[in-house]
């Protein structure tokens, strides 16, 4: 066995050894012996020149490829010679050269180390690989200069070397979040070869810092009644930690009252404090809000600060009017200066905005007197009269001195209590009533009405008919009339008879219910109107019931001669007493006539022998009433030559005729009187 040693990576044709020399054989014999080189590997790395016996490199030899990390690397050859057959074993040791640099698995290495990692903590780094062996392989590591880490190289029994980073100084992510190191691997070749990897160390955050506000306290100023959503202040807290450890949430501290929480709200993300309730200067002039900022680390860390919010007053409160004393009922005879109400005023605003002035309308009989600050008295200013104004709504106007001023109006209802200071008054000074005779009993003739401007009991009226002293019983009004005591209706107790009583006059008195009572009177005139209730009554010629009156006339009575006169009267008056005479029946219709108004019976022609000797005349006396009433009288006229009887009839007629003027005058006077009274009564009623 022949052994050669050659370095790897020799060029093709490089000399390995002289087999002829080393075998001690002549070169010529080798060529004659048909020398052959056989290799154990698939590649023919060597060849032999049979002419020279020199073994040469025929292919590139890479020791690392052939033998890897084996410390020694050999290639084996066999030489075959014929005549005689002989085999020679040749062993070629391939020597390592420093043709490989140490190589890290990656040019970049990333480590993540908790910033609270303990000192002395070790952090292995994947080692570099060097395909060379022996002294040419990896020999050492070098770490770039830094403040926190040292390098420790750990050697294994197989010769491997593993680098470790050792924490020598505590990390602080907030000071330095990343560390950049360079690790160099170097072999033992000559010259040595090396490679580098860049180590990036990310310091992982630990929640070791609490949030910090940019100021220990905040201040803000708002006007009261600021709209909802108004920004009060924006807080700013920072946490140098990162991730959840530096993620800050804002909240109102539990130290705040529930009332304050209803007024202010904070956005947990932005730290903005906004108004969410009503700001009222009169309830609080300053609010101190306690705020906390928490990070999201585990465990959480927090920080506190205070926000002082000053509220500026605005004139947003109208004055208040408080009745300290008030009587809604006031006697109408109260003297001027009488105290009606005591009023207290206040305004919850401050400064001039809280100063209040009060006044009432000058048109009212009341005035305000300022007793002292914030108190007024409402007084009567003039005399009062309930009958003119029974009820007052007194408006108390209270205004502050703000700009613009605010005011409040309070209405005090004041009712005047009645005093019986007014006597009843009839609606008419006198009443005139025209009543038809024969009126039904109980019929209402007239209603007298009085008014009393007083109220309640003072205005409750009572009516009565007064009887005048010395009045004849036949003319006593209480005999014929009665009056309803409360409504004043005068009713008939008896029917009137015009033929007995044509006129009544009396007083009606009214009294109120006051104490003492006040009274008044009115005069009532009652005129009785005639009704056609009496038929005419014949006074001449007189005749008995169902009998006729006989008259005698001479046959020689001239035409138009007055033979007699029917005289009748009617107890009625006016048209009811206007009488007319009518010849209703006659034996000889054309012989006699009756004067319509006077009742004179005359011949219309001369008597003739052919005329009857006795004539029956039926004369009807009728009044002008509606319906008319009448009376009939029967006359028998006898035609005879007996002159004295005829004259007797004439004398009787003349005697009765002498009284006609008196009766006529009476009738005319009665008619004129009744007509005049009727006209006056109608005129008064028309007024």
From TrEMBL:
The keyword Glycoprotein applies. The gene is Pcdhgc5_0. The chain crosses the membrane at residues 663-685. One of its GO terms (cellular component) is plasma membrane. It is a single-pass type I membrane protein. It holds the Pfam family Cadherin_2. GO terms for molecular function: calcium ion binding. Keywords: Calcium, Cell adhesion, Cell membrane, Glycoprotein, Membrane, Repeat, Signal, Transmembrane, Transmembrane helix. Its main location: membrane. Residues 5-104, 105-213, 214-321, 322-426, 427-538, 545-663 form the Cadherin domain. CDD domains: Cadherin_repeat. It is found in: Cell membrane. GO terms for biological process: homophilic cell adhesion via plasma membrane adhesion molecules. The keyword Kinase does not apply. This is Protocadherin gamma-C3.
